[in-house]
Amino acid sequence: MRVKVVNKTPTRRSQAAAAKRSAILDAALEYFSQFGMHGTRLDKVAERAGISKTNLLYYFPSKEALYIAVLKEILDVWLAPLRALREDHEPLAAIRHYIQLKMEVSRDHPQASRLFCLEMLQGAPLLKAELESDLKALIDEKSQVIENWVAQKRLAPVEPQHLVFMLWATTQHYADFAVQVEAITGQTLNDEEFFNQAVRNVQHMVIEGIRVR
To answer: DSSP string spanning the chain?
Structure first.
């Protein structure tokens, strides 16, 4: 019997569609992060993406659908470093690496971080279900990893959720309050020396707080 081989190589058409969808999401992020959902016009997003509004609506049937898609993409980028945390890692090295990755996200995706912060400040009306399901499940899973490290005396006693909240708050501050950071220091995370200094200091303060003594 001959086995039918399915060619999974992306076609030119599917690649073009993916590129167009990516361009729409990038343009939408730029506008949503500046003006919020209600202050953003789809025709402006379409113009920025280099397509017609009709074509945009083919990919995303409404402004709300586009906004939710952007937020979910942000969540994926934001949570990727946390998903990589595993119990078989050395705890201090893993958390040190997590801080490095989260600071890189703040440096490379500041608009995404600010938009997510804006959504949280508004009560997350369009993302609450996602937060209460997938995000909570992930935090529960990684909290268990941290609890196990503490039980094995590989970390000082710490409440896992509060540790995660503190890591988020510290690393994302550099994106969400970038204007304040620059006003005070005269520098941004795009300055390599300042970025490395910020990473080292955050790592030092966190690691020294959870190191077993």
So the answer is: -PPPPP--SPPHHHHHHHHHHHHHHHHHHHHHHHHTTTT--HHHHHHHHTS-HHHHHHHSSSHHHHHHHHHHHHHHHHHHHHHT--TTS-HHHHHHHHHHHHHHHHHH-HHHHHHHHHHHHTT-TTTHHHIIIIIHHHHHHHHHHHHHHHHTTSS-S--HHHHHHHHHHHHHHHHHTHHHHHHHHS--TTSHHHHHHHHHHHHHHHHHHH---
Model confidence, pTM: 0.83
- pLDDT tens column, 1-54: 444 444 555 687 788 888 999 999 999 999 998 888 889 999 999 999 999 999
